[in-house]
Amino acid sequence: MLQRTKKSQMLEDHGDKDREYRFKILLPNGTSVCLTFQNPKPTMPFGDFIQRLEEEYSLTYRQFSSGKRKRDIDWKSGRLFLEDANDRKIRGEMNFKNFKPHECHILKLHDGSHESAYTFENMWDLTPVTDILKELPEEYTFETALADLIDNSLQAVWANDRRHKKLISVDVADDVISIFDTGPGMDGSDENSIVKWGKMGASLHRSLREQAIGGRPPYLMPFFGMFGYGGPLASMQLGRHALVSSKTKDSRKVYTLHLDREALLTGSNSNIQKKRRGSDSDSNWKTDGGMRDPLEDEISKTPHGSFTKVEIFKPKSKLDISQLQCKLKDIYFPYVQCDEESKSGKTITPVNFEVNGVDLAEIEGGEIAITNVHSCNGPDFVLQLHFSCKQDSMTKSPDSKAYIQANARLKCVYFPMVEGKENIEKILERLESDGCGTSENFETYSRVSIRRLGRLLPDARWARLPFMEFKQKKGDKADLLKICCLRVKCFIETDAGFNPTPSKTNLAHHSPFTTSLRNLGNQPFENEKDVRIKIYRDGNQLTLSQLKKEYEDWILQMHERYDDEAHCGEDQPVLVVSPANKKALRISSEVARVHKSLKRKGVTWKCGQKIKLFRGACAGVHNNNVYATIEYFLLEGLEGDPGGGARIICRPLSLSVDKGCILKINDGDTSLDIRDSLSVPVSVIDSGKCVAVESNEWDNQLEKQRQKSPSTIDLLDAEECQELGVDGALPVDAPAGKVPPEVIVAVVRPASYVSSCASKTLDQKYIARTNLKMSMEVKFRSDAESLRNFCDISACTVPEPLKGIQGLYIFPLKSKYPALFQTSGVYTFSFHLTESNCKHVEKRVLIKQAPIVEYKEIQFTCPKGKAPVIGTPKVEFDEIQVQSSHGKVLPLQDSSSIQQVGNLMVPVMKAPKVEYDESPIPCPNEKIFLLQDSSSLPQAQNLEASNVNKEKELEKHLHRSGMQIGDMEKNLDALNKEKAVIEQDIYVLQASVERCNSDYCSMKAELKHRIESMSHTAASTLLNLLRVPSQELGNDFMGGMIGLVALLGSTGSSELSRILSEYLGEDQMLAVVCRSFAAAVALEKYEHNGEVDSRHALYAAAAKLGRSINGRFLVIGLDDIRPYTGDFDGSDPQRKLGLPYPILPSGNTPDGFLGYAVNMVDLDEHHLHMTTAAGHGLRQTLFYFLFGELHVYKTRQDMLAARACIKHGAISLDGGILRQTGAVSLGYGNPEICFPVLRSVAVMKKKIEIYKETMSAVIAAIEEFTEDHQKALKKFHKKNKKWHELATVKERRLIKTTYSRTHGHGIVGFEPHTTNLYANNSIRNLVSRPLDHVGLTIILNNQGDQLELERGIQSERAGEKRTRKMFQPNNQISDHTKSLSIQDSTALMQMDEKETSPVVKDGMQNGGFAQAESIIYYTKKLQDDLQMMGMKIKQHEDNIKLLKSQRNKLDDSILDLQVILGKYHTSTASKIENEDHSLCKSEEETTKKILQREKSAAGILWQLKTRHGTQAAHLTLTKDVLGIVAMLGKVEDDNLSRLLSEYLGVDTMLSIVCKTFEGVKALETYDNEGCIKKSSGLHGLGASIGRTLEGRFLVICLDNLRPYAGEFVPDDPQRRLDLLKPRLPNGECPPGFLGYAVNMIHVDSTSLFCVTASGHGLRETLFYNLFCRLQVYKTRADMVPALPCISDGAISLDGGMIRSTGVFSLGNREDVDVRFPKLSVTSSLPETYLDSERQINELKWKKEKMQEDMKREQALLDNAKFNFDRKKQDFLKFLADSSSYATQHQFQAAAQSRVTSR
Questions:
Q1: 882-934: per-residue pLDDT in tens?
Q2: Model confidence, pTM
Q3: DSSP string, 1553-1577
Q4: Which fold has domain 709-848?
């Protein structure tokens, strides 16, 4: 329009030059003539104009006559006149000034005849432009053509402003189709000519495509025009003839255009052929048209007067109206109803679409509407894509941009499985029933649909985009993702940057943007490299990897929240809470239901049913079909909750029953151990990949399984091992010393293997492939047949492949056991296959006797110059093994060497005979000599003693120096750490000083702004009033105002500010603080009915400010508050209260205690000196009233540990809140209103100075310690060098040795110690040990060439226990080593750590009798201890038996009373049924309100209780939960229910009530840093059912409450508290007093007695602590005079509320949705009934206490049995050790006597 205006202005500026006037004259006979006048005079006589018209008509008629004769025109008639479109008549002259030049004007000629035409031949020229003829679509469908016409109408109405109606009406009949729109319309003018509708390429909207690029999704800018031929071709596709009628709001006439299919197609073919031939001859497409008056129906549909109507006559096919309505709604859905265009979020109707008079917004059909209904309510996965591509320089026009752009929005919507059925399947079924069905099923359903500018492209039904696929995904979640991704459909909205196909049914296939969109998620193709894509989600740009990760997380989130793969089983479920093996079960929920029967698609599947899982069905079923037995069905979440999957737990056929899944229920805790069973998704049933198996097929598979199962173990022989290339054959027999083979190869043979297959032993078919372990044991038996077998070697291995053969068990022998065949005897090799019934195999190898060994020389290390000589001994042994009493094998010389020591038969070893050859051996190095006689030994001992003394001195000095150096280094490390901490503190404080004051001011200003923005609150109104002088508003009530609680104090840290604000709550933080009661009540006036009068006081002032006050608000009067009366901290300028530190029962101050909250709030200067009339400050009154003696701790752990000394509640900086009433505030919160944070600058500067002084002291200490450390270290290295020199000389003399029986073979040498003493604690201990006795042990080794000596180190300190045993219980004397003891080595028996073991004295000095006597004594002592323990066990067993009998008696009594109550219920059932109806209804309303709070703790728990009441009561998480406050009491009327509920508040009404504090702790757990564990407790339960627990929630522990200690009302079945009535100063009861709120709560009879462990009921515990002595009055007027006797608050039935002394709740009543249920009628139960019920409760309470006693006795019994078993094992061990000692003692004595005799 702007361009046209500029062009017209330019033409008008030319003045009178080149003025051209064009007219189209419609003649009375139905023809039309065009006239053109170049620069005419301003006026022309009318006759001249008619004459020119007649001449032009004659010329035109002769050239273009259609052959039909037209009626004659009376050119000479005196009644000739012209009429324009506005019905103006022209007769006298033609005034050209009334017409715009350069435009065509339509005039109608009248000749006075009554026969006037309405349609005129060749009125419109529809000749298209040349390029359009090349773009015509090849084919058109009926629906596509109709949509094209509607596109034109939609583009038209979209141009209307808000005042004009946007209507598109489609009417379909058998003979005509009409499309009517209320767009701007068309006329005969050049710029708005109706010709453009029918002329190809002349679309008015085609040039607007650029404006439709960009914008905001869903891109509702219907500039669909791309090619400019939609109107004429679409109308001709629908029918044979079309009539277009249109009117603008400025014209009075309706212009019409006629289209005829035959004429149009003939002209089209002719023009196309001419264009192809390149002919320049003119060819015009002209059609008829006309002008007429609008019809009444047309006027009624368009109040603003413009419209366009297209009528198609003789349609080619008939349409089903309902299907047409659904399809059109799908195509134009965002224009029919849209949520995104409305700022309020409400659904709007951008355009009114009607089909045969029915509004499309009102119909329920259509794929889009049905799809939206079945989508989940969760968040969609929304992406914003921006495409850009550089245009080809060869193709772009000069005016075009360098880059072309496009935008798209992808919205992925999740369609969950509900009640075991896919929602997508429900969509397809619904479409089929509505007659709109497609050939698609769940697998082939199109997961992508596309809209361009809000219009659906019907044929753009794509499969999933690449980023939506998980084909290559691996891992635990792969199968789940592959299933869940099928539940996602992506709705793509594109702008005009994307090109459609000519028929506008899909995106252009070869467009680079289309290709890039279809490939989103993959690497770009070659033709996409010029296209740049930017991906955004929530405003953040993503890479492809981030896109895939976030999409995966979103799908898993949707699955957990909304998938209900199996609504419920066919049987009662068993709940499993917080299973530890979720990964094995393949679930993610914290709660799961276990069923034994499940119905799926009408078929019931049961536990024990045989099934077949087809190959590739899911994870774990990859290569082969799996036959299995169903064990359980596992459903995630609670019944009826959205989210969670369903799985089948099945045991494969190859798995034995004992390895399958086990469901364990132990004391209410349920666990599901899947073991080796499979967990498969239940969707395998839906996909047909799981089918039931008949018995015949199952039996066949059993037989196949048996044939393949392991049957026997076979060892490969030498030939088979050679074929494998290994040395692996066991010999049958061999001489001692035979080298064992490299390996042994074993295989497992299947049951199908028979002896006839011996030639194919290495065929894989006859070698079973298993993953089981095989064990090998080697047992040795010597030639003496009387000795029994013992295990010598045990090994285990798994199968491995070799040369392409699987299943080979290869045991290494030679490398691992080189001394295997060194001793003669029988070696038995046993092979076992673990976890299998496969037969084991044994292989025996006989090793023959080895020759006798003779020893020639023994070398000794002696002092220099001494060379004693010893003869060469010849030792021969006649070996006999004798079994000792405790199973040890000892080598003996002969079997007669058995002596009796006391009552024990002890085998004794005789010493070998030693003969000496006196020939001397030379000592070339003068350090090695031969012992000649025993006189040389003392000289060696003297030299050794001298060296030992020197070593001792050095060792002691090194030990002291090492300790000193270590302490120095620890101190240096600590000082350096302290220095770093101080430096960091100084840096933080300096930074804080700089920003302290500015931060505080800005925080306080921000807080005020936040409060002021809270509209409709008293706090916001008061802050605004404080800015306005009171004289201007006449606010007399503002005089006694002090301020708001939140603005009267500040804290030193943000953590403290947050937790204090959270403790008080927003109501108290925004409480109004006044000086007196008079100032408080002046804020509000009341009407006669008790309602607030909004015309006075604070409400009137708010109205003057244009504000209002809704709801209640707290007002605190300081003069009425009881102040703190103790001492103050005199040195503190803030006048903090002198409260004593809390003391635990142990006498200590609790760990982590930081102080009292009342002292942690700092007051501003002007508030610090503010006092009440009695002279008390704000801290003494306001903050002491708010906080009392509230403790502040560092952590929750510190707070809970100090519960014993907490009276007024406590908080912790990590979020813990323990209230005075006994309620624990769990969860986490984020309060909006917090105290400002202020740190004192002076205090921080003082701290900086202190830190700097401390830093200087620390630096000085570091320097001093460093200097001392260097000196000590230098001295240490000098002494250490001397010690090493002495140790080197000593080690050269030391013979490397060890006890051969400790190692079994060979001798391990003693290596010299070269490790630094300071660094090695073991060396430090070694060098500090005194060497008091040196002994020699001769060891004869039949595998070595020398006789070695061991220098034994023994300690002979008085009274010290010996820690070394001659014979360890698990060691045996080796056959390879024989030892001869020259010294005594005593053994100590190992006893219980708490017992004193007898000290066995040296056998060489005291003899064997004393030792035997000691053994007998200690044996008797152990027997006495065992007897005493047995008596304790008997006592505990008797106690348990007695408690059980008493419990059984209680059960009988309870049963008898329940029978009595049952008889009463039977007789009065019909009567009570009607009475309880309204009560149930009231309870249902309260339950409904609780359940509506889905993300609250109460909502989650109550849902669990309502659906799984019986089982939920036994869960660990909830078994201690008694209920919700709102459901534990009832009241008699609605008004009282509302008042009491409003007094408590929603948070308290939704509080969870637990019996014990253990139940409180189970609801919420924390990690090491004090953060809440979201995966456990109530948070984990909420997450498992898709409900994230938000905010805080109160938990009340009954055991923590201080119960009412007074009497009860006599003979009251409700056990009301006998509270004294309030009394005024004159002694009278206040008028209007109705009673105490605690007694107005009706408590269920089961909760009146024995609820807590101490036997109290709910009234004296829970409700007494909630209401205390809250008084109830009739009216506010009654309540005010009673203020002197109100201590714990009061309420009135007309809405008055006093919280406590000095605290008033003003304002209008609030509608609390969670209320106490209403008690419909007074109970008519007899006293005997109530008494029986009370007795039952008492008996149940006694039974619970008795069960606790039984548990305690059982624990004591278990402990006594454990101690008894331990003592018994010690006794048996003592007997074995004593036998071993006696044997060794006799052996040593005999050896000593032999040596002495020689």
A1: 333 333 333 433 333 334 433 334 344 333 444 434 444 444 443 333 333 44
A2: 0.49
A3: EESSHHHHHHH--B-TTS-B-TTSH
A4: Immunoglobulin-like (2.60.40)
